Amino acid sequence: MRMGNKSAVVTRIILCAAPLLFALVVSCASSSRLSPAGRGTSGEETSSDASGGEIRTAFEDKLRKVVDSYLGVRYKTGGMDRRGFDCSGFVVTVFRELSGVRLPRSTRDLKHVGREVSRRDARPGDLVFVKGGAFGSINHVGIYLGNGAFVHASSSKGIRYDRLDDEYYTKHFAMLRRVFR
After folding, report:
1. Is residue 70 part of a domain?
2. Are 49 and 130 in contact (CB under 8 A)?
3. Catalytic one of 28, 112, 152, 172
């Protein structure tokens, strides 16, 4: 094969593959695996795990790292350290560790911090509030992680992940609030 023919073949391959690559990129960009903040609207750098998992911002990576370090810590009423957390103590500790932000200590006061956002607009780091107290009052708080997942201090299982679409949380969901970003 002559040199000119090789470059013609390479050009043909590139021209034939370009539409397929474009379709693949568009398909991946609209994939539901992308976290809300990972869509590039915030201008933050993003990363993904080696297994091709969800794309996350630097903030989300830091949030996950902090949260993961507490997974499995037991529930303790009034707790704010690795010996045990209650729900608001966990949220306050994570936010202080993440960004130095000092939040109110109680769920009752936390529900007034920031601004309310819809489930559709939820982003990692938003606060998740759950009803369950007397008269359906808000008595529990966690941190939204994206894609319907949140982390909280469960009174029976300690620090753990759960999903907003689980039956209990669907029924008792109260609101989401954005503290910053």
Report:
1. yes
2. no
3. 152
Active site residue 152: yes
Q: Is residue 43 part of a domain?
A: no
**CA 25 → CA 18, 40, 137, distances in Å?**
11, 14, 45
pLDDT tens, position by position, 111-132? 999 999 999 999 999 999 999 8
Distances (CA, A) of 149 to 4, 7, 55, 132: 56, 50, 15, 19
Tokens of 135: 């008269």
> For residues 136 and 154, which has the higher predicted lDDT (pLDDT)?
154
How far apart, in Å, are the Cα atoms of 67 and each of 3, 10, 12, 26? Answer: 58, 49, 50, 32
- Burial classification of residue 146, based on how many CB atoms lie within 10 Å of its CB (0-12 exposed, 13-18 middle, 19 or more buried): buried
Q: pTM to 2 decimals? A: 0.71
Q: Which CATH number does the domain housing residue 73 bear?
A: 3.90.1720.10
User: Does residue 105 fall inside a structural domain?
Assistant: yes
Domain of 110 in residue numbering reads as 56-178
Catalytic residue among 16, 112, 140, 172: 140
Identify whether 87 is a catalytic site residue. yes
